[in-house]
Design goal:
By secondary structure, the chain is an all-alpha fold. The protein has one domain. Helix content is 80%, strand content 0%. It has helices at 2-24, 34-66, 69-92, 101-125, 133-148, 150-171, 174-198, 206-231. Helix 1 (2-24) runs antiparallel to helix 4 (101-125). The radius of gyration is 18 Å and the shape is globular. It is a multi-pass membrane protein. Its main location: membrane.
């Protein structure tokens, strides 16, 4: 039964990420190598383990000292956004396939999905100990909430960072641009977490949902902006003008 428990947890954790992956990949008209997508996904998943350690230290030091809720949600958000960027950057920054503006968003989203999958795994595996009708219902409801909530949040926040990563590479000011992107992503991440904590009643979940839907619109617009840059001949590998 323990092996079945593990299988159910892994499959359940992957389902939201797989669905969103097939939703966003078509935004790239020139598909990326499956090998590189897999490595980026794995890097995002692997980086989540470092995030757990850093967030634990953060909560035991600064948060424990100042006892500030806003510091908590902002701090946890910025840690996740920074490490998700590190995962994508570490994997594709020097790869020749990372050459089109849209690639920045695609690889950041894939890294975010790897990260979110590990989160989903922890949440689902801790939600049941035996298989029964009741636990199946819990798993399904958890998956739905993670699909339209936390998993989508990670995608959108990382998509924003990916947009500014691409813009920074085109303008040859990656550090400044990515820093700005992480600030915006942290804001989105923090606002969503705040709304979830304030409106926990099922009837009030419409507020964080509206916030995410709005963010989806802006991220899709960012995709279109980068596609327009590609049509103009912009590349991530072009040399700066003298």
């Amino acid at each position: 039964m323990e092996a079945f428990h593990i299988i159910i947890s892994i499959v359940g954790a992957c389902i939201p990420s797989i669905i969103w992956l097939f939703f966003f990949l078509p935004e790239d008209e020139h598909p990326e190598p499956k090998r590189l997508l897999f490595l980026t996904f794995g890097a995002g998943a692997f980086m989540s383990l470092f995030v757990l350690v850093v967030q634990y230290v953060f909560q035991q030091t600064l948060v424990a000292t100042y006892q500030n809720f806003i510091l908590l949600i902002v701090g946890l958000a910025v840690i996740e956004e920074v490490f998700k960027f590190f995962a994508a950057h570490w994997t594709v920054e020097h790869d020749p396939n990372f050459n089109e503006p849209v690639d920045g968003m695609i690889y950041m989203i894939v890294a975010a999905l790897g990260f979110a999958t590990v989160e989903n795994l922890f949440v689902i595996s801790s939600s049941f100990s035996i298989i029964s009708t009741a636990t199946i219902e819990i798993i399904v409801s958890t998956l739905i909430l993670r699909f339209i909530g936390a998993t989508l949040l990670h995608i959108l926040a990382s998509g924003i960072v990916g947009y500014y990563w691409a813009k920074g590479k085109m303008k040859h000011s990656v550090f400044v641009s990515v820093t700005f992107g992480i600030i915006i992503a942290t804001f989105v991440h923090s606002v969503f977490n705040y709304l979830i904590s304030e409106f926990q009643d099922a009837n009030l979940l419409i507020y964080p949902s509206i916030f995410l839907i709005t963010a989806v619109f802006f991220v899709l617009v960012d995709f279109e902006k980068l596609k327009f840059d590609e049509e103009k001949g912009s590349s991530l590998t072009s040399e700066p003008k003298p």
